[in-house]
Amino acid sequence: MIGDSVTDWTDGSPAEAAGAAVSAHCRRIIELAGPSCVAVKPQLACFERLGWPGWKALEEVCAAAREAGLLVIADGKRGDVPVSARAYGQAMVGFTETPFGRISGLDADAFTANPLLGEDALEPMVEAAESAGAGVFALVRTSNPGAADVEDLPTPDGPVHEQLARMVDRFGDRLAGKESGLSGMGAVVGATAPEHIARLRELMPRAMFLIPGVGAQGGRAEDLGAAFAAGRAAALIAASRSIAGAEDPAAAAEELRETVWSVSG
Fold first, then answer.
1. I want to staple 134 with a disulfide (CB 3.0 to 4.6 A). Which of 129, 168, 198, 204 is the partner?
2. DSSP string covering 1-21, please?
3. 183-189 and 207-211 strand pairing
4. From the first residue on, what is the mean pLDDT of each consecutive set of 10 residues in the chain (265 residues)?
């Protein structure tokens, strides 16, 4: 347990007790595994389902990550019509002006977004990231088994996931880095279907890849070398349960770091 005990943090309500426990658990994982990582990727629904204590826990976890020198990628897979997408961008990386003053959002370094509503819906979130100096990872070819139901459907110009990849690349200049040649307009590309990675890298030569699915979902870091064709900073390998649930999270994180480094060129 880190910091105050759960009983000190709450007034005894289930939501507050759960929020305190989640906060303490996540901060402990950051303390143990953080030295082998570059970022944390909090799954927003796991915090939001607890109500306001969950949001409080999320803010504490993000603060702990920043204190540890880690980036924060808010994993909410937001997507909506443009007016609502703008609010999502404000919530993730921006701020909202009100009659009572400016209200900051989560202040994440990047967030995940669902591009299936089209470019006009993705645009306000990219704009928010551009203003904040943040990044966006759009879903392109996800790690779940059902991804093939939609993302692999054929179109006249290739499967849907290739169309999404082209969309990501069209936004690339907006979030381009000044020195690396990479763009903060990134793509979520699952490790569970590594056969698509080389083609997606071809279609998105500047995009940073956020690659979930290693570990508990069956993906293997050893199969992901093609994601790093654009350089060692071109991909982030996400592993959650295989690290957080390990008997020794620090050792699990370091083992994955060494494997990723070996395949990244």
1. 129
2. --SS-HHHH-SS-HHHHHHHH
3. parallel
4. 47 90 97 96 97 97 98 97 97 96 96 97 97 97 95 96 98 90 96 96 97 89 93 92 92 95 90
Catalytic, 41? Answer no
Cα 124 to Cα 23: distance, rounded to the nearest angstrom: 31
Residues of 6-37 as b/e, b for ≥16 C-beta within 10 angstroms? eeebbeeeeebbbbbbbbbebbebbebbbebb
Length of the chain counted residue by residue? 265
Instruction: For residues 114 and 80, state if they share a domain.
Output: yes
Which among 41, 56, 77, 178 is annotated as catalytic?
77
Shared-domain flag, residues 61 and 92:
no
Q: Which domain holds residue 1?
A: 1-38+46-69
Structural domain tally of the chain?
Answer: 2
Token readout for 136 is 């966006």
pTM of the model: 0.93
